[in-house]
Design brief:
This is DNA gyrase subunit A. It comes from Monoraphidium neglectum. Its EC number is 5.99.1.3. By secondary structure, the protein is mainly β. The protein has one domain: DNA gyrase/topoisomerase IV, subunit A, C-terminal (Neuraminidase). Helix content is 8%, strand content 29%.
């Protein structure tokens, strides 16, 4: 018997031009606003219905054309914004150089009409740095930064450890990077997910099964046995990590790893991070 493939072959989501690559996919309604973040640190917005509808096999339309831009921008994030552009939500941004910033989403409300084709500055970048990821968060959540060497740093979203700043303010240092290392992605745990991860972490520690990794690079292993025979596969939240290198065979299959998010909630939060 042969085990089923880890990843199905899937279907094409659109025809790509030249050396272009798919970066982001979101679901939204026609009247939602889409917030675009460029590598340069600028933010743009457009109503979803202004994006031309196309078939699954179509090549799509250039973002610059949809936004009415006169100059080229490289975009790193696309987010559906809530109708009110507020609701206590914040925009969190991370750069390749390890800088992070949290700004109230309402600070970008001027983009709601989609008439500011020049965009607004969302984060001031140091020379040579660029925006790598962005997402929406709420107080009580947790931000996870992943580096090119497989290390993860985390910090909680609150006014003590990661306070909100205005659009013109400087960013904070979110992860101390080694020479040649850079931040490649950012994940955000919602408050409910973060609470579940903290509970799992505490249960592991109480059971003496927590082999949490510190900055020296020890692995995190162990699991929580819950009453009632809960299937371990249903315990969560999980952090799924995918690498860019294939693992053999004729068909390209990226390496995939799955780890409970509680394994990354180190005492004291972010900083240098640890290898997972």
């Amino acid at each position: 018997m042969h085990a089923p493939p880890l990843l199905p072959s899937g279907k094409s989501g659109g025809r790509l031009r030249g050396d272009d690559a798919l970066e982001e996919a979101v679901t939204c309604s026609a009247h939602d606003s889409l917030l675009f973040l460029a590598a340069s640190g600028k933010a743009f917005s457009v109503r979803a219905w202004r994006v031309p509808e196309a078939s699954r096999a179509a090549a799509g339309t250039a973002i610059a054309q949809v936004l009415g831009l006169s100059s080229a921008e490289r975009f790193t994030a696309m987010l559906p914004a809530p109708p009110s552009w507020d609701g206590g939500r914040h925009l969190v941004m991370a750069t390749r150089g390890g800088a992070v910033k949290r700004t109230q989403l309402s600070s970008f409300a001027s983009l709601k009409t989609g008439k500011r084709s020049s965009g607004v500055l969302a984060i001031n970048l140091e020379e040579g740095d660029s925006l790598v990821s962005a997402g929406l968060c709420e107080n009580g959540g947790v931000v996870l930064l992943t580096s090119s060497s497989g290390r993860v740093a985390n910090f909680e979203v609150d006014d003590d450890t990661f306070r909100s700043k205005g659009r013109a303010a400087a960013a904070n240092k979110g992860m101390r990077l080694k020479p040649g290392e850079q931040v490649v992605s950012m994940s955000i745990l919602l408050p409910q997910q973060a609470a579940a991860a903290r509970s799992q972490r505490a249960a592991l520690a109480a059971a003496g099964e927590d082999e949490g990794e510190d900055d020296d690079g020890d692995d995190v292993t162990g699991s929580v046995e819950q009453e009632g025979g809960v299937d371990p596969e249903e315990e969560g939240p999980w952090l799924v990590v995918i690498t860019s290198k294939g693992i053999g065979g004729r068909r390209f299959r990226p390496s995939v790893g799955q780890t409970r998010a509680c394994a990354f909630l180190l005492p004291g939060g972010g900083g240098a991070g640890g290898t997972r």
